[in-house]
Design a protein that fits this description.
Strand content: 25-35%
CATH architecture: 2-Layer Sandwich
Number of domains: 1
Structural class: alpha+beta
CATH topology: Pantoate--beta-alanine Ligase, Chain: A,domain 2
Number of helices: 3
Shape: elongated
Helix content: 10-25%
Mean pLDDT: 84
Largest sheet: 5 strands, antiparallel
Low-confidence stretches: none
CATH class: Alpha Beta
Distance between the termini: 44 Å
Number of strands: 5
Length: 112
């Protein structure tokens, strides 16, 4: 059972929720949780497992690895990596993106 395009978009959207500081979210994705994709996304309640969730506070990156749940177990042959793009409300994320993408730097300056 693979994920549909709408389900992949859903994972991308909720990857922003990994940020503990983010307000106005349904939940904070946590490792080893089994959750359901809302029925409104694809017309059915499909389960997935969050294999890994990362909120890197040094560079502003949020990402997670998820897999569909088949017969009660995560099908790790179909892992999806979902990540948040630039979070406009996170100054560190914007600064890092300017350094790495805008300036082409592979060495990050500290913003502490």
């Amino acid at each position: 059972m693979s994920f549909s395009e709408n389900e992949l978009l859903y994972f991308s959207d909720i990857s922003y929720w990994i940020d503990e500081k983010k307000d106005n979210k349904g939940f904070t994705p946590k490792e080893n949780e089994i959750r359901e994709i809302p029925k409104k996304i694809n017309g059915e309640n499909k389960q997935y497992k969050i294999l890994k969730a990362e909120d890197n506070t040094k560079n502003g990156m949020q990402a997670m690895a998820v897999a569909p749940v088949v017969n009660g177990k995560a099908d790790t042959s179909q892992v999806v990596i979902a990540y948040a793009g630039t979070n406009q409300s996170n100054k560190l994320d914007i600064a890092i993106d300017i350094q790495t993408v805008g300036a082409g730097s592979d060495k990050l300056k500290s913003f502490d």
